[in-house]
Structures are given as C-alpha cells and as structure tokens.
C-alpha cells in the first residue's frame, strides 16, 4: 500500500496553517440546517433529551466519520473520486467501492443546486429588509412576500445566478487566495451577527424561556423518531458524506493532528448551532410564534418575530447571516467538484469553476421551477425539490458515510490506513476510532437510511394495523 499511495506531491497545495483549515472547514460545516432545524426538532423531541442524543451522536459517529474523511484525503491528496479510487486500487478491494467517490460528487452537486436557489432568496430578502420593505409586515404579509418571490421564476433565476457567480469567483481564486480569506470573513461575520442577535434576544426576547426550552428533559417525547433525527442532524451538520472533508484533508500538512482538527470543527459547529438556536428560540417564544422548521421558519416566521421584537435592522442582519453561511457551504461544495473537473479534463481552475457553475445552475432549475411553473408536477406527493432534497440529503449522503465506515473500518487493513493516520496500529486512539466506525457510526447511519426510505414508518403502520385487528 505504501508504495502505491503517496502522501505528498511536489506541486501539492496546502493550507497556510492548520488554523486556516479549521476556519474554512468549520465555515463549510455551518449551514442552513443549523438555523432552520434546531428550534423545531428540539421542541418536538424533548428538548435536552434530543440534545443529549445529538451530542452522543457527534462523539460516537460524527467525529469518527469526519476523521475517516480527512484520512482519505490527506494520504492521496486528490479529488474525492481519485482519493477513494486510489485507496481501493492500492488495497486490492473490489472496484465497486470507487462508486463512493462518484456518489459523494453527485450528492454534493444536487445539494449545491438547491442551496443556491434558497441562498438567492436570502440575498433578495437581505436587500428588501435593508430597504425597509419587510418592516411592519405581519406574518400574512411576509407569507405573501415569499410566495411572490418563489413564484416568480424570472426573479428567482436572477438571484440563483448572482449567488452562483459569487461562489464561482471565490473558488476560482484558489485555496490560499480564495477559500482561506473567504472562510475567515464568512465565519467571523456569521458569529458576530449571531452575537448581536443573541444580545438583542436577551434584551427583548424570552431568553429564560429559550434556556428552559433546551434544558427540559423529556425522553417520552424523544422516542425512536427523535433519536434518529438527532443522529441525522449530527451527521448532516458536520457536512459529512459530501466529500468536502476529503477534499479539505488533501490540503492538510502531514503533521496536523486529525483528531484535533475533527474536534475543533465539531466544537465550532456545535457552538454556532447552540447560539443561533438559543437566539432564534428566544425571539420566537417572546412573540408566541410556533417553533417549526424549514423554509416557512426562515422566510416567514422568524422575520415576523424579528420585526415585532427588534425592528427591520434585525431582519437585515438575519438574512445577511444566511448569506454568509450558505456561501461558505456553497464554496466548499463547489471546490470538491472543481478539483475533480481539473483532474478529469485538465482545465484551469477558472475554467473548471465555470463548468461546475453552469452545471449546477442548470440542475438548480429543477428546484427553482418547483415553486412556480412546475409546482403542480408531483410524483408520489413530492415536488422535484422535495425529491432532490430527499435523495441527496436523506439517502445519498448518509449512504456515502455508511460506505466509508464499512470500507475504512472493515475492509481496509490497519497497516494500510496508518500512513494517513500518522501513528501506529497499537495507538489506543486508533483502535477506538476503528471500533466506533465499525459499530456506533455504522449502526447509526443504517438507522438513518432505513428511516429515510420509510422502513420504520411502514413497520409502525403494520404494527398499528395488527394491534387494531
């Protein structure tokens, strides 16, 4: 294995420092799911009971898979496709394992396509909030604003295009001149805005109520559904299964501690999630608004709560924060696509970024039109956007994570992995990591996938029917 996989290349690109990687990777991990999911799912599944399972899932599943992706990238230093492909070839495993790389690439492209549309709406709302258009509007008025925006295919196409152009510009600049400075600005800006919103929520919101909301322990409300949702949230919130961390691992210096890097990313991501979740919950509770999740929370409920409690300036900051976190995730997703295009066709970084942008732009039309011209087109009760989100986020990404767990924890010999690990097979941390990949992480991801494809729903229905009969 060691003579076939090279962990350094003469022209390899590296992060300027481990801290730079930590900042960019943390910025990439923080996404919309950290904003629009936590208040609603914590409310539905027992508050602190949900958070306890979420924290355990991060430790027992999220961090091990994150380390595995960093190992895959650092040893080979290529795209997610070539990294996994060379590991498979050098270890003599079945060629079908190479499909992991292509699945991660496809899932990332799909996620970026609908992320770009939603982020484009955030750009539009930031401008409208800053101009005072949203100020004084009640919930019905904000609902009408969103319906009009989403229903206007022409305007939506423009915002979708503008956001992708910004993403392409950053990625085309490269790792040192593009990803690093952008990551620092975006992550710092997001935390500053969250701090301001949290301070405002402490003054005008129901902060004690928000703390009580997250500290109440109700395991009866958690149930098996809440436990699976907590596992999924831990996996998705760290951007696992996309191949992003494989791509970022390729830029890591050999002496960088992978465990330290994984822990740092997890801490930053969790801190942001807790802070933004607390601020949003305090503002929602102060106005007696429902703690739901999804697009309705972002574009209708939260702006109403912000306007009522703090005024239009808070809505402007909130949507600006959404732009920052969506742009940081979008840059990471496009980066791993660009690296593969450069490897595959030998294009310059600028040309590769433009090719990826056009491809994602076209794919994003499916999401964009799902809210207007194709709104009536459904299959099994789901729009095209619903299917894209389900297949990518709920099936492909956890499936890639599961395959990585099986491949790294079961099929690859320890001696083959250790070159990317930096250490020895007798290292206790190494043995614990492999154990976590083989059991908790693998079992958790299997449960997530079974839940996503409806196995548990069917079993629940079948059990209920049998008892009723």
Write the layout of secondary structure elements.
Layout: H1 18-29, H2 33-36, H3 38-44, H4 48-76, H5 80-91, H6 99-130, H7 139-151, H8 153-172, H9 175-204, H10 207-215, H11 219-237, H12 244-249, H13 258-286, H14 295-309, H15 312-345, H16 349-369, H17 384-411, H18 414-421, H19 428-452, H20 455-468
Helix pairs in contact: 1-9, 1-13, 1-15, 4-5, 4-11, 4-13, 4-18, 4-19, 5-6, 6-8, 6-15, 6-16, 6-17, 7-14, 8-9, 8-15, 8-16, 9-13, 9-15, 10-13, 11-19, 13-14, 14-15, 15-16, 16-17, 17-19
Describe this structure in words.
By secondary structure, the chain is mainly alpha-helical. The protein is built from 20 helices and no strands. The chain has helices at 18-29, 33-36, 38-44, 48-76, 80-91, 99-130, 139-151, 153-172, 175-204, 207-215, 219-237, 244-249, 258-286, 295-309, 312-345, 349-369, 384-411, 414-421, 428-452, 455-468. It starts with 17 loop residues before the first helix and ends with a helix.
**What's the number of helices?**
20
The figure for the number of domains is 1
Oligomerization status of the protein chains? single chain
User: What structural class results from the helix and strand content?
Assistant: mainly alpha
Beta-strand segment tally: 0
Main beta sheet strand tally, sense and closure: none
Can you tell me the overall shape?
globular
């Amino acid at each position: 294995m060691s003579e076939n996989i090279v962990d350094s290349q003469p022209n390899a690109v590296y992060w300027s420092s481990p801290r730079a990687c930590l900042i960019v990777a943390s910025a990439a991990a923080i996404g919309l799911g950290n904003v629009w999911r936590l208040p609603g799912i914590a409310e539905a599944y027992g508050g602190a009971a949900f958070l306890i399972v979420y924290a355990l899932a991060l430790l027992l599943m999220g961090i091990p898979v994150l380390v595995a992706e960093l190992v895959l990238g650092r040893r080979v230093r290529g795209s997610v496709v070539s990294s996994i492909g060379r590991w498979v070839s050098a270890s003599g495993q079945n060629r079908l394992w190479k499909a992991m790389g292509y699945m991660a690439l496809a899932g990332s492209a799909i996620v970026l396509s609908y992320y770009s549309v939603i982020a484009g709406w955030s750009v539009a709302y930031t401008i409208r909030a800053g101009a005072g258009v949203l100020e004084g509007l009640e919930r019905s008025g904000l609902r009408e604003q969103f319906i009009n925006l989403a229903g206007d295919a022409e305007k939506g196409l423009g915002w979708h295009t503008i956001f992708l152009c910004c993403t392409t510009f950053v990625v085309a600049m490269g790792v040192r001149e593009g990803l690093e400075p952008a990551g620092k600005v975006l992550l710092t800006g997001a935390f500053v805005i969250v701090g301001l919103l949290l301070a405002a929520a402490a003054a005008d919101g129901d902060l004690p109520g928000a703390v009580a909301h997250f500290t109440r322990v109700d395991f009866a409300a958690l149930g098996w559904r809440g436990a699976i949702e907590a596992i999924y949230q831990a996996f998705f919130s760290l951007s696992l299964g996309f191949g992003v961390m494989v791509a970022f691992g390729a830029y890591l210096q050999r002496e960088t501690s992978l465990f330290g890097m994984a822990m740092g990313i997890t801490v930053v991501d969790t801190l942001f999630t807790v802070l933004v979740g607390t601020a949003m919950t305090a503002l929602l509770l102060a106005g007696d608004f429902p703690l739901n999740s999804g697009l309705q929370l972002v574009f209708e409920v939260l702006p109403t709560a912000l306007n009522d409690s703090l005024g239009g300036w808070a809505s402007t900051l909130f949507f600006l924060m959404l732009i920052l976190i969506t742009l940081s995730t979008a840059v990471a997703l496009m980066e791993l696509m660009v690296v593969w295009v450069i490897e595959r066709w030998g294009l310059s970084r600028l040309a590769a970024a433009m090719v990826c942008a056009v491809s994602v732009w076209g794919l994003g039309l499916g999401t964009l039109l799902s809210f207007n011209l194709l709104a009536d087109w459904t299959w099994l009760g789901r729009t095209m956007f619903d299917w894209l989100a389900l297949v990518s986020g709920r099936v492909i990404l956890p499936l890639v994570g599961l395959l990585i767990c099986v491949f790294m924890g079961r099929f690859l010999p320890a001696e083959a992995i250790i070159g990317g690990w930096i250490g020895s097979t007798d290292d206790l941390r190494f043995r614990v990591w492999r154990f976590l990949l083989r059991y908790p992480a693998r079992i958790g991801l299997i449960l997530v996938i079974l839940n996503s494809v409806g196995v548990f729903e069917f079993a629940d229905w079948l059990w209920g029917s049998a008892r009723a009969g």
